[in-house]
Amino acid sequence: MANFSNRREREEMQELLKAYQNLKKGRQAAFIEEEDFERIIDYFDDQDDVPAALEAANIGLEHFPFAAQLMFRKADFLIAEQQFAAALAVLETAELYDQTDISLYILKTDAYLALDEPEKAARILEESLGRFEGEERLELLFELADVYDDYEDFQKVFDCMKLILEEDPNNEEALLKICFWADFTGRMEESIKLHQWIIDEHPYNELAWFNLATAFQGLKLYEKAIDAYQYAVAIDEKLDIAYRNMADAYIRLRRFKEAIDCLEKVVEMTRPEDVIYEALGHCYHKLENFAQARFYYKKASHISPEDSRIHYKIAITYYRESKFEKAIKQLENAMRLHRSQPDFNLLMGDCMLQLNRLKEAAQYYAVVVQLKPKNVRGQEALVEVLLQAGFYEEAYTQSLHAMESTRQHPLFLYTASAALFGAGKTKEALLQLEQALSVHPQGFKKMVDMVPGLLQIAKVVELANHYLKKKKGKR
Questions:
Q1: What gap in Å lies between CA 429 and CA 425, rounded to an integer?
Q2: From CA 105, how far away is CA 75, in angstroms rounded?
Q3: 76: CB partners within 8 A, 6+ apart
């Protein structure tokens, strides 16, 4: 039956096109109704033949000069042909005959946007809102939101989405869009109130629960966010984005086991993603289950082999298990991709230090210092490995450079003193130590670790007692 109906429609269309061609050629033809011209225009439009569709609209208007619908169609094709001024002129005429068709305002908007006059486009839509209600008013609000987005009035985009939801709380498109705009504009409190109202009216709207959760999450109210996400997935258990966001909230709360449960749900529901496997690796890492962390980091690495950070994270798990050679292999992979990455060089230096390969450790730490001279951790690592290797003059010089680079960080007063002790310059070392104690007495404990036998020197003990007691007296 459907095939018969389609065949009949095709036959009618062919008859209509034949009549239209006869009309164009000036031959005697059956009278073509206004609605028939619209069908002919639709036919050419479906064929993506804009010039033919525009010609049909013009011929139709010759026979029906007051037909607003044909004018709207003509304006639409003029816009497609980038004849924007001509389109607006046609629409001004159409407005004399029909101000109740939403096409008039949308087409005017399209023309003004194409002419890079978004303020005029917005004004037309704003003034037209009062003429319409129901679905047509919602369509105009969506158009207006797009215009505001076009000239970056993002607060008004949020306002449009809010108006739509106040009129149609279950509007899926608006619910999806307002989630982004609430976050982008920072209007989380308004989003919370709006979605709580929607939920009161429509308690099984999973997108409203989801948006409520994201607003709570944006305000760092992670417990409330988790509660709202749980309602969302109770209504729609396949809402994988809710599980993703819930996992993030659990991670923020350092509740890694619950985060793993959520991430595993995502893995079950979606295709493999490096970001999900990496998040699982992170959670197991925080739980100090390094083997399982590596399992997921490696899955992430298979998907994104060019992501050097994942190789670095695998290296950290090996380092934490004192498997330094394996850590080095992963770091080599990472550094083949990004050699000048301070974190990679720092961990490589730490691995070399643990293997007592002091010269190589110093070389990697030196790269860190070169890349990030203000980084205290890198400067400290380089000075300490120089001390450990017995390069006291270099350690002293580097301590002075470190103080200059790190705005006189007191740690390097102690490392300078340690270098002088190591070089046998006890008098200068004591003077340097006294300066360090006067500035930062808490750092003395680290000094003891750096210089074995330091507490066997009576003058050192005397100085330390003096400044440490002085510090206690100030409390």
A1: 6
A2: 12
A3: 87, 103, 107
Contact (Cβ atoms closer than 8 angstroms) between residue 155 and residue 185: yes
CA nearest to 336, candidates 307, 299, 364: 307
CA distance 216 to 225: 5
More confident residue, 172 or 465: 172
Q: CA-to-CA distance for 129 and 102, rounded, in angstroms?
A: 10
SS3 198: helix
Ramachandran category for residue 152: left, alpha or beta (phi over 0 → left; psi -120 to 50 → alpha):
left
Cα→Cα distances 258→122, 124, 252, 261, 275, Å: 47, 51, 11, 5, 17
Contact between 409 and 436 under an 8 Å Cβ cutoff? The reply is no
Q: Please state the separation of Cα 326 from the chain's center in Å.
A: 33
Tell me the CA distances in angstroms from 441 to 360, 407, 415, 428, 465, one per residue in order: 33, 18, 14, 18, 10
Give the total residue count for the chain.
475
Q: What pLDDT, on the 0 to 100 scale, is given for residue 212?
A: 98
Q: Where is pLDDT greater, at 377 or 57?
A: 377
Distance between CA atoms of residues 116 and 316, nearest Å: 53
Q: Given this model, what pLDDT does residue 188 score?
A: 97
> pLDDT value at position 50?
84
The region that residue 134 occupies, defined by phi over 0 for left and psi between -120 and 50 for alpha, beta otherwise, is: left
Tokens of 279: 């998040």
Distance CA 361, CA 385 (A): 7
Rounded-to-integer distance, Cα 462 and Cα 437, Å: 12
CA distance linking residue 196 with residue 208, whole number of Å: 8
Sign of CA dihedral 303, 306, 309, 315: positive
At residue 466's C-alpha, the angle toward residues 463 and 468, to 5°, is 105
Q: How far is CA 289 from the centre of its chain?
A: 29
The DSSP code for 32 is: P
Q: Is the pLDDT of residue 453 over 90?
A: no
pTM summary value: 0.83
pLDDT at res. 473: 52
Asked if the model's pLDDT at residue 83 lies above 70, the reply is: yes
The token pair that represents 444 in the structure block: 């003395």
Burial classification of residue 442, based on how many CB atoms lie within 10 Å of its CB (0-12 exposed, 13-18 middle, 19 or more buried): exposed
Dist. CA 196–CA 178, nearest whole Å = 14
